Amino acid sequence: MGRGPSIENRKNAEDARRGKIFTKLIREITVAARTGADPAGNPRLRAAMDKALAANMPKDTMERAIRRGSGADGADDMQELRYEGYGPSGIALIIDAMTDNPVRTVAEVRHALTKHGGNLGTNGSVAFQFKRVGELVFDTQAAGSEDRVLETAIEAGADDVVAGGGVSEVLCAPEQFETVKAALHAAGCVPIRADIVMRPENRTAVSGEAAQTLHELLDWLDALDDVQEVYHNAELGD
Asked: CA 207, 213, 216 angle in degrees (round to 5)?
């Protein structure tokens, strides 16, 4: 009898997590659709829809987000904002948000950083430590082999493939992202995740209490409805 509430609690937690993921994806689709409601001619929208499909978002939910973003269902007042700052041990952070209330969002982000030993920086204070790249991550065994991923990716125009720990990371210029992804899909290599990201040029090792505090900060930021993505330059190991 004691198992019932536990199962129910787990289901409620999973539903809440799923709802939060959907909220972020809907915002991403909505903003992407501003520059065109046809994914065939809008790579950003196509990428957002791919992520939504991977999360099992219903088609009608995606279509409503596209209509709203394109103006068909009324005005869309979402703004895209990027914050730069520092976490514990001076770890560099880039925080991308989408919000209809910038005052609320900056206050929440600043509070999160301050509470975990960090601070909000000015525009450009940490961005120089990151590079915007297409990043596709594969389970090497599921993809067939490191050589298969490497050869397909490089032939399609990727810049580099970093393999280790059972995964292969394909890196490419943002302009080549869709071409590289399509070539790998055609070769039967389905990524664990694929997106255009802000990738740190170098990473800083963090361990012990600082690593624990950073994990707590990242979880806190991820829980904020307005925060879409968080990038950092920490090397956290396992």
From this structure: 125
